[in-house]
Amino acid sequence: MPTDTMDNNIPITGLDDLTAHMDALIADPSTPLEAKLFDDIELQLTDSNTPPLLTTLLPRLVQILHTTPSDPTTPASLTTKLLRPLSFSQITSLAPPESLIQALESPFPAANILAMTILHKAAAAPAEVAQLADMQEVVHSFVRTWLGSSEVGVGEKGGRVIGDLLDVDCEFDPPARPQRQQQQQQQQQQHPLDAGMPTWHDMVLRKEKGSGALWRRVFADQQVYSLILDLLAGRHEDTNITSTSDVEEKKKKGRQLTLAQGRILRILPRLAALDLNKVARSEVAAPTPGYYLYATARTTTNGHNTSRPNGRTTNYNSDILTNGVGVEQEEEEEEATQMPLPAPPKQGQGLLHFAALRMVDRNDVLMHLSLIDFFEAFVGLMRVTPHSEDKVNIVKEIVREAVADDELLRESLEGLPDRTVDEERDELRGWVREVMPPREEIDVVMR
Question: pLDDT tens, 60-86?
Answer without folding.
Answer: 999 999 899 999 999 999 999 999 999
